[in-house]
Amino acid sequence: MLITALTDALSFGVGAITTIPAVQIFCIYTCAAITITFVYQMTFFAALLALAIKWEANGLHCVLIRETVPEEQADECSLFTRLFMLGSRAHPDPKMLEANLRGRAGGPILSELVRAHPHAAVGARVGLALLREGLEPVNLLVKDSYAIPHYRALENYFWHYGATVQIVVNNPPNLGDPDERQKIRSMVHAFANTRHTIGDESVQFWMDEMEHYYMDHRMGIGIPVHNVTSAKHFYGLTQHFLSARRNDFWPEDVKWEWQPDKGFSRIKAFRFLVGLRDISTSVQQQEATQILRDVSTRFLRYNVTTFMPLWLFTDQYAIVVPNTVQNIVIAMVVMIVIALLLIPQPMCALWVALAIASIDMGVIGFMTLWDVNLDAISMITIIMSIGFSVDYSAHITYGYVCSTRTDPSEKICEALGALGWPLCQGAISTVLAVVVLADVPAYMIVTFFKTVFLAITLGLLHGLVFLPVTLALCVRGVFSTTAGAGGGGGAPSPAAAIRFDVSNAAPTAMPRRRSDSSGGAISNK
Q1: Which InterPro entries does this one have (predicted)?
Q2: From 215, 227, 400, 478, which residue has the greatest number of CB atoms within 10 Å?
Q3: Distance (Å, whole) CA 55 – CA 62
């Protein structure tokens, strides 16, 4: 229980260092819940369990605390009594599961599962190669939402050609200077001519419209604004242009600031719009965001900001992969430290770490093949998969290391016989708890179910099949055989004592011994 609570709590604690607020909140609350649950189980629940065992030993009902009917008298009782008031009985053969594992799991079933591992690894690598990033806006809606056709139309038409990005100049220069105005136009040209912008013809800029307005001979004005050199004159022309009824589209693009020392207002900030193209996928949206931000860094003196509603999602896309890698690496390091502290075999701790990496690769790879993107939701369950994978792997590894058997196959059977069924019960109960989410018509909830199901399934397979076989093949030096007394001088005596290797810093475990009927050799029991 300590291994389970510690690994789960720390895996979510590592997830809390991510920069995505939703993931932080989920991980913090889950870590707190796991901690409180562990304290509750070790105190209140353990006390109730002790009382229940005492009542059972005294033949009392676990709820009504009344005397139950012995099994020998069951045939004489009513159906109600047999169902609700019958006493408990001991398991007929506590070694049955271990014997079953020795007879079957060590045979064709285990062999077929082990042979399937390379194929599963190839499938996971294919999924990793096809990994898709980002939480698409349409996936935030339920499947029957009326807004889905709207988003599909955006993806199919407007995001291919015609969407606009707003570019804000927060620190404009003195626009009364023609040279400064020319530099601004060069900046606008740079934004308009990138891989994901349409070109100069897509620019919506109030300064261009103002020049056209004053050069329109139908208005009888004919003022060449591009030749104006006075700041007061230029800003006055701009105010007049923006106040005209036909130009009511542009005032929102300019912010004014009064200058008491000069006696007129200046432009404090302004914006212009540029048309976008080819941003229908999350990868293209990330690329467009990065390109436009790179252009803005070339004009730092103007403090340029780019904005589009999609940027709210592309910012999340950009940090999901780095945060996921960061969390996996840190969590694996933490889990290795825990394994080294709790498992008395350093080499076994290494294999636990490799099992964690294999499970995480499998979860990420197969979730892609199962039509799940790498986003904030799947990132949470990847963090969960680290804790789940350590649970199964660490328990089986600890059972393998602490086994008193000498043969690796016997050690596997003993570990699985003691821990296999409880681990299966934990996995089945977790899957049953989330399987009700599989039919909910919402991408986020179904994604949670899929990734949790993958984490539990792959973690259980590694803990019960792949890791035990690996330990049996690669970790054979856990025990050593030492000759007993009375050996003479030839071969080691059959009185060999099986103990933990001192070099692995594990506690000594001496089995009981008895003399055979001849009074000579001593055999292990």
Answers
A1: Acrflvin-R, HMGCR/SNAP/NPC1-like_SSD, Patched_domain-protein, SSD
A2: 400
A3: 7
Selection from 467, 354, 321, 496 nearest residue 400 by Cα? 467
Residue pair 426/395 in contact (Cβ under 8 Å)? The answer is: no
Minimal CA–CA distance to 257: which of 171, 372, 382, 369? Answer: 171
Q: Please give the model's pTM, rounded to 2 decimal places.
A: 0.70
pLDDT on residue 152: 85
For tokens 């353990």, the residue is 46
| All domains in the chain, ordered by first residue | 97-135+318-474 (1.20.1640.10), 161-309 (no CATH), 479-524 (no CATH)
Are 196 and 285 contacting, i.e. CB atoms less than 8 angstroms apart? Answer: no
pLDDT band at 92 (very low <50, low <70, confident <90, very high): low
pLDDT at 519 over 70: no
Instruction: Note whether 202 and 166 are within 8 A (CB).
Output: no
CA-derived radius of gyration, the chain: 36
> What local confidence, expressed as pLDDT, does residue 505 receive?
38
| Residue 288 and residue 163 in contact, taking contact as beta carbons nearer than 8 Å | no
d(CA 425, CA 248) in angstroms, rounded, equals 69
Residue with tokens 């892609």: 368
Q: Of 92, 55, 86, give the one whose Cα is nearest residue 72.
A: 86
CB 375 within 8 A of CB 137: no
* pLDDT class of 507 with cuts at 50, 70, 90: very low
Sequence-distant (≥ 6) Cβ neighbours of residue 269 within 8 angstroms: 168, 169, 170, 171, 172, 254, 255
Q: What does the angle CA 507 – CA 512 – CA 515 come to, to the nearest 5 degrees?
A: 145
Q: Which of 32-36, 105-109, 186-190, 199-203 has the lowest mean pLDDT?
A: 105-109
- Residue of 118, 100, 8 whose CA lies nearest to 469: 118
For the chain, give percent helix, strand, coil, nearest 5: 65, 10, 25
The answer for residues whose C-beta is within 8 angstroms of residue 44's C-beta and 6 or more apart is none
Query: 381 with 27: CB under 8 angstroms?
Result: no
CA 347, distance to chain mean position in Å, is 27
Q: How many CA atoms within 13 Å lie on the side-chain side of 139?
A: 20
By CB atoms closer than 10 A (0-12, 13-18, 19+), residue 409 is middle
| Alpha helix segments (H runs only) across 85-165 | 96-100, 108-129, 148-153
Residue 68 CA to residue 84 CA, distance in Å, equals 9
